[in-house]
């Protein structure tokens, strides 16, 4: 056989094998998983358009809610089905369909995979982590929608997959579901934290209970709380008219003062006062997610972003060798929200003196700075009555007030706790707090062994100095 004949024989054998494979493929029944998808779409798998949209994992519950709303409107009787088979944890939906069609892997319809996601501080719901459903596009074209949660060894994302016979139907379905996601956003009006919480979590974003404080529970110098409310609440109440007159809504509030004076307490009051507002709380290293938080706040406005102890990341850039990248992220986030957004940034710090000037001196970032000082005599009396409000207090408070100049709200809270413990030693189920009880608790707290506690709770060094000189603090302070 010469070379020409050999080549012709090779070509003929190749064609024969190809025809044999084709006939075998036609004779082999279409796998059930593929048949279910292609039968609904009315086209072969090779002609299916695949559109995928990815979201952070903390959006999984919103994606589920948007998809549920879409299905209720278009195919309320449709039922979800899952995919069974080895390796489904690591394969994409389209890859599993292709593998099943070519008989490379045995993937077939199976049970739906579910996961749990938070919808509130103490509530959860089920979300689909792997499932498919046969539905229709907004125009009525058959489509298949798949929902996929985060996969092992992959980026922390969830995704929606839309399979359709044409691109327009696929993208139209995806866009409609995403619009419904935003309409049914579970985070709207909630108190959220970009940090770990003891409450039920959801990866990066967790839910927190909304505090409920009355104005008379916030002990500040006269007019201070009213000024804060006018800046935060007043703008929110007139947001529509301010926009109509071309005025910006975004605002910044800085609360500064010594530790324990009530900055966080004031913030908690604002969280309860703005009951319809979405609140995002960021503390410590969680501030590195400020860009994501700012985007979420703009989406869910009216919103408040609370950045506690902001001096930890917003120190003057001259204090750091690397230029402080977290500071730049914070400044960019505050600017990026947009002046027209009803978003408030509330910052707290014990060290206003070290803050970056570009943060505190530029309108639009911080518009109002308020000092929360240590309470005066009137404030100290009010704090004593506040923390004893549910108890029987039968004591002359003036001696305690006189001895606690320079003390903070935290100090008085602990003082009342110790006073109650002292009274409970009398084994009275409904203790009466007397001047003797208060005096004993105060003596313990001001004792030499309590020096560190005084420092942490802010009792004031000059109180201790007065005691060392053997005279009342008021007399010592007049020297």
Counting helices, strands and paired strands, the structural category is alpha/beta
**Structural domains: how many:** 3
First-residue to last-residue Cα separation: 123 Å
**Name of the CATH homologous superfamily of the largest domain:** P-loop containing nucleotide triphosphate hydrolases
- Largest pleated sheet: 8 strands, mixed
Domain AAA+ ATPase: 249-376
Keywords: ATP-binding, Nucleotide-binding
GO molecular function: ATP binding; ATP hydrolysis activity
Protein name: ATPase
Task: Write structural notes for this entry.
- The protein has 479 residues and is of the alpha/beta class.
- The protein has 3 domains: 28-183, no CATH class; 192-371, P-loop containing nucleotide triphosphate hydrolases (Rossmann fold); 377-477, Orthogonal Bundle (Helicase, Ruva Protein, domain 3).
- It has 18 helices and 17 strands.
- It has helices at residues 3-27, 32-41, 60-74, 93-101, 167-183, 224-237, 239-244, 263-273, 290-299, 325-336, 357-360, 377-387, 398-403, 409-424, 435-446, 451-457, 461-468, 473-477; strands at residues 49-56, 82-84, 108-110, 113-120, 123-136, 142-148, 157-164, 191-193, 201-202, 205-208, 251-256, 278-283, 303-308, 343-349, 368-371, 392-394, 432-434.
- The strands form 4 sheets. The chain has an 8-stranded mixed beta sheet, with helices on both faces.
- Helix 9 runs parallel beside helix 10 (325-336), helix 12 (377-387) crosses helix 14 and helix 14 (409-424) packs across helix 15.
- The chain is elongated.
- Residues 470-479 have low confidence and may be disordered.
- Residues 249-376 form the AAA+ ATPase domain.
- It comes from Acrocarpospora phusangensis.
- One of its GO terms (molecular function) is ATP binding.
């Amino acid at each position: 056989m010469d070379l020409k004949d050999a080549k012709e024989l090779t070509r003929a054998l190749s064609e024969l094998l190809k025809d044999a494979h084709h006939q075998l493929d036609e004779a082999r029944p279409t796998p059930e998983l593929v048949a279910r998808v292609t039968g609904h779409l009315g086209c072969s798998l090779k002609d299916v358009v695949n559109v995928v949209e990815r979201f952070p994992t903390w959006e999984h519950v919103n994606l589920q809610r948007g998809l549920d709303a879409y299905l209720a409107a278009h195919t309320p009787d449709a039922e979800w089905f899952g995919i069974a088979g080895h390796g489904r944890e690591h394969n994409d939906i389209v890859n599993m369909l292709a593998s099943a069609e070519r008989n490379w892997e045995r993937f077939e319809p199976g049970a739906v995979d579910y996961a749990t996601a938070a919808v509130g501080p103490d509530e959860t719901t089920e979300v689909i982590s792997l499932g498919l459903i046969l539905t229709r596009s907004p125009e009525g074209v058959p489509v298949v929608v798949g929902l996929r949660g985060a996969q092992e060894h992959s980026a922390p994302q969830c995704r929606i997959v839309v399979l359709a016979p044409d691109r327009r139907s696929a993208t139209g379905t995806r866009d409609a579901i995403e619009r419904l996601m935003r309409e049914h956003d579970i985070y709207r009006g909630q108190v959220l934290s970009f940090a770990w919480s003891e409450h039920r979590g959801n990866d990066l974003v967790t839910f927190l209970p909304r505090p409920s404080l009355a104005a008379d529970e916030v002990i500040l110098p006269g007019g201070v709380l009213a000024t804060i409310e006018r800046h935060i609440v007043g703008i929110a109440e007139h947001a529509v008219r301010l926009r109509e007159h071309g005025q910006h809504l975004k605002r910044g509030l800085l609360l500064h003062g010594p530790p324990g004076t009530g900055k966080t307490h004031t913030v908690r009051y604002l969280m309860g006062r703005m009951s319809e507002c979405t609140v995002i709380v960021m503390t410590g290293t969680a501030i590195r997610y400020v860009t994501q938080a700012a985007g979420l706040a703009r989406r869910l406005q009216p919103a408040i972003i609370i950045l506690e102890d902001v001096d930890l990341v917003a120190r003057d850039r001259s204090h750091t060798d690397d230029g402080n990248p977290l500071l730049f992220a914070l400044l960019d986030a505050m600017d990026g929200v947009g002046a027209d957004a009803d978003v408030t940034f509330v910052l707290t710090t014990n060290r206003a003196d070290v803050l970056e000037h570009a943060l505190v001196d530029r309108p639009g970032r911080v518009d109002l700075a308020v000092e929360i000082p240590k309470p005066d005599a009137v404030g100290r009396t009010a704090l004593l009555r506040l923390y004893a409000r549910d108890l029987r207090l039968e004591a002359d408070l003036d001696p305690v007030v006189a001895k606690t100049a320079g003390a903070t709200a935290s100090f008085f809270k602990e003082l009342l706790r110790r006073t109650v413990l002292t009274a409970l030693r009398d084994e009275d189920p409904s203790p009466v707090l007397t001047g003797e009880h208060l005096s004993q608790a105060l003596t313990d707290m001001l004792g030499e062994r309590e020096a560190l506690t005084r420092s942490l709770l802010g009792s004031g060094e000059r109180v201790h100095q007065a005691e060392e000189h053997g005279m009342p603090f008021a007399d010592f302070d007049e020297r």
